[in-house]
Amino acid sequence: MDRECLELREKIQDAELVLVGLGEACQYDWNALLQDERYQEIERETGDDERYVWIVPFLQKMILRRGRGERWEKFYHILRKMLEGKNYFIVSLCMDDYLYDAGFDESKVVSPCGGFRRMQCNKNCAGELSDMPEESYEAVLRYYRREIPLTALEEPVCGRCGEKLRFNQLGVERYAQEGYLEQWSHYTKWLQGTVNKKLCILELGAGMAYPGIVRFPFEKVVYYNQKAFLYRVHPQLYQVGEEIADRSLGVAENPIDFLMGLEKL
Question: Which residues of the chain form beta strands (DSSP E)?
Answer without folding.
Answer: 17-22, 87-92, 109-110, 114-121, 129-130, 165-169, 199-204, 228-233, 248-251
